[in-house]
Amino acid sequence: PVGLEYILTSAQATAAYLAAREPEGTPVYVVGGEGLRHALTERGFVLAEDQVRYVVVGWDPELTWRKLALATLLIRDGASFIGTNPDATFPNEEGLVPGNGAQLAALQVATGVAPLVIGKPEPWLYQEAMRRMGASPETTGVVGDRLDTDIAGGVRASIFTILVLSGINSQADLVASSVRPDLVCGDIGELTQVWRRLSQ
Length: 200
What we know:
The chain is α/β, with parallel strands linked by helices. It is built from eight helices and ten strands. The longest helix is centred in the middle third of the chain and has 12 residues, at 65-76.
């Protein structure tokens, strides 16, 4: 098992990004789940619904029109618009359903303001992960199943990228994409075999 100290979520990366730029006690309005709220309050941010410095948006399984309306009003009033990640969809047991990118798009249409996205495919999340591990791009690899976030982000951060075809993207998606991973594997099992061969 992997220890929690080796896990960095887009919510945690967003909180770290903002904490490096704002003092404790900065008020933020959150559209998102408990993980995002916890990440922000752990860094000293105060959750509020008026006179906020930031509107921070992560995937919200209990999203309502009221939340979107309040976020819209706050952004229009001058709050900075932050997104944890731009994933248009994510898979559940029923198929692909709207992800945080869909929420961000709704708010961008309503406000005319584009969000600053902290998570993949922006390089900041990768840079923060390497900083925590004491690693560098030359000694780091990115494994992911999404070309538009996992792999694109690794490319932007100058990290070796490995696409696995057992998740979101297929071989057909890879052929059609301008994003080029350094290595492609059918699944994690194949990646493990390749890794063992390379390590010998």
